[in-house]
Amino acid sequence: METVKNRIVIKVGTSTITTETGENNFRTMDKLAQVLSGLANEGYEVILVSSGAIAVGANKMGLQQKPKELKLKQAAASVGQCELMHLYDKFFSEYGKMVSQILLSGDDVENPVKKQNLRNTFFTLIEHNIIPIVNENDSVSYTEIESNDRLFGDNDMLSSVVAVLCRASKLVIFSDIDGFYNCDPRLHPDAKLIEEIDKIDDEVYKLAGGAGSRRGTGGMRTKLQAAALATSQGIDTIITNGKNPAALYDIIEGVPVGTKFKAQ
What we know:
Helix content: 40-55%
Strand order of the largest sheet: 3-4-2-1-5-7-8-6
Number of strands: 8
Strand content: 15-25%
Largest sheet: 8 strands, mixed
Distance between the termini: 14 Å
Structural class: alpha/beta
Shape: globular
């Protein structure tokens, strides 16, 4: 299936929408809403995939640290998803945009009937100028929190699945670093940013290293897996720093930002 030229999926992780101390990062969320609303006004169809429900819920529940026990994680996800959507609704409505919530688990994209219904829902929302905000259904789907069968991995893979499902032309994954480096920039000050990668092979995976920030769960490896799926379906994928949502304007104009993985 052909991709839709003006359709973009943007993924934000927990580290982008929370501060170092685990509080909600209102400044980034506001800027994100402003930029996505601006893109929508320019005729772009945007879909936001957002992590952060567990962290936001833990914060609202007054928990001192990220919960470790499954049932507490699911409770925090339930509280946090409510708060997350409340905040997004508030920020986007400031810029005259309506948002909707879509919560997914693995079965929703693997079952052909559910998949088609899901696609219809996305397309109908987009037709009505509504910005879908997507997250894993963590309070129901334990596999996404705990198991080794994680289909989505801190929503990196989920954003890629959504981009393929909705035939987006671009997937932008916001990270807590500026892009994909030749080694971990947090450990090696001389690490170099790779601006463009044509093919994701074993050599590229070797550079990826382990998990990400202590607030999120997705490291660079899950982002690479997401990029591999998206690019195989003709979708350009960009990994860049989520602290600067305005970079999206450069991305749509073709200005090099972060690391671009070229569509195959």
